[in-house]
Amino acid sequence: MADENQSLKKAFSGHGGFGVDEATMVAMVTKWRRQPDQKSCFRRDFSDFFTTIGSIEKCEDDYLLHLKTEFSRFKNIMVLWLMHPWERDARWMHHVMHKSYPFTVIIEIACTRSSEELLGAKRAYQALFDHSVEEDVAYHIKENYSKLLVGLVSSFRYEGPQVDNEMAKWEAKALNSAIKSAGSGKLIQNEEIVRILSTRSKLHLKATFKHYKELHGKPIEEDLGANLWLQETVKCIDRPAKYFSEAINNAFKEGADKQSKIALTRVIISRADVDMEVIRETYYQQFGVKLEDMITKNTHGHYKDSLLSLVGK
Fold it and tell me: Which pLDDT value is given to residue 29?
């Protein structure tokens, strides 16, 4: 009986992790059919979920909300998997303005998609929400950040092989001068920094960042101070696999917040058919463990199975 209670607790994510173990739940429904004493014993044993008020056994409201989230993970991943990628990206960008998704999601989409993919997402955004993503970003994201984000989502970068190496070297110097003159608090408002990061091709920027390190002895991220948005922009453009690998790992950390956990589904769904092999290799190099092993350890049920299928185990 105690073992059955523990198994059902784990199935309900009572011991942490992502998702629920649907197979165990269904097995217990079958096994405990017409055995109300078994369920009563489970309720008394599962104090995280149930409390007693007088003679009434009550489900805890907070835990019900937790379970709603965990039960929905498999539903969400399947719906997102079926969506056209442009619609997915459009909805994720809309969530930034209307459902408190972090602004870095816009940076992620603008800087890791191809020019045609970003254009498609913007077309989908207009079709779905009767606004352009540019106008919504400019309206909803105030303070110092809108200039960078509007620039990134407005971009249609050149994607050919040509790089003007002398120009890349000159712009590495220009970035350093802009960083020194702007001061850490105003970097994200600097027109030269925004112009270079939001208009140049990714190959050109990779060359620029390489020259920056050679000329100034350290990666440009180190000179961007604590400005997370600029650091994320550089990382998404220069080393996207590293960015995605870190986003996945952040979801598995103890105490990860809601948005970090949501990122696990978003990253794996959006990269499964793009560069997941590279992300898996990068994850192992960074953290010394296979991505599929981390998923197996930290997720449950159909949600776990779907993630493992998407990462290619």
Answer: 87
